[in-house]
Design a protein that fits this description.
With 212 residues, this protein is an all-alpha fold. The chain contains eight helices and two strands.
């Protein structure tokens, strides 16, 4: 039997392969400078010097009333801005909020909680959210003694920095809303252990009517 001898067509294909590779490499080299030029365009970078303005800076001062860059939604005016942003008071999780919590703040906190927190923590804060029911790691219930005793700044910091299986929500929830969610968590904790006799008379009446 005759050995397998490559045909002329096979030899031609093998011969053309290095040529094709070389052509592809040359094409990449031709495109690369264009990509570099697009990345490094003729423009002023932030804080770069410029002869166009009297102060010698390319970046212009912000117009009065412009929203701060660190939070495009704006931050409320508070006396302790560090507390608002960090959740810390004297280096520890704060026991107080940086601004008063009223009914409107709690309503906002409930709204944000229902959007961002219920998938894991559940409507009642019992850690039985819908994705937990589908196998995700179960978070602790807010009624656990250690969380009931935790300062409100603890919940703000967990939302800001993440904890365990929970990732940070700092890029998703504004600082003021994180505080309002923390306040609403406090309301959830109180609601789980509320004693009817300690409620205002009008609320006791509502409970009695609902029980009929």
């Amino acid at each position: 039997m005759l050995p397998n001898i490559p045909t002329t067509r096979a030899w031609n294909a093998k011969a053309r392969r290095p040529i094709r590779l070389a052509a592809a490499f040359a094409a990449l080299l031709a495109v690369a400078p264009g990509c570099t030029d697009m990345y490094d365009q003729a423009k002023y970078e932030p804080y770069e010097a410029s002869p166009l303005f009297a102060n010698g800076a390319a970046s212009r001062p912000l117009v009065q009333g412009t929203v701060p860059h660190e939070d495009p939604r704006g931050l409320p005016k508070v006396e302790d801005r560090d507390l608002l942003v960090t959740g810390l008071k004297d280096g520890l999780p704060s026991k107080v909020t940086p601004f008063p919590i009223d009914r409107e703040a709690l309503e906002r906190g409930r709204n944000r909680y229902n959007i961002y927190c219920t998938p894991c923590h559940g409507i009642a804060g019992d850690g039985r959210g819908v994705i937990v029911q589908r196998g995700f790691t179960k978070p602790p219930a807010y009624t656990e003694a250690r969380l009931v005793d935790s300062p409100i700044g603890h919940f703000y910091q967990v939302m800001s920095n993440g904890h365990g299986a929970m990732y940070s929500f700092a890029a998703r929830i504004a600082p003021q809303d994180r505080w309002k969610i923390a306040a609403y968590i406090r309301a959830l904790q109180l609601s789980q252990g509320a004693v009817p006799s300690e409620l205002p008379p009008e609320d006791q009446s509502k409970l009695q009517e609902a029980a009929r």
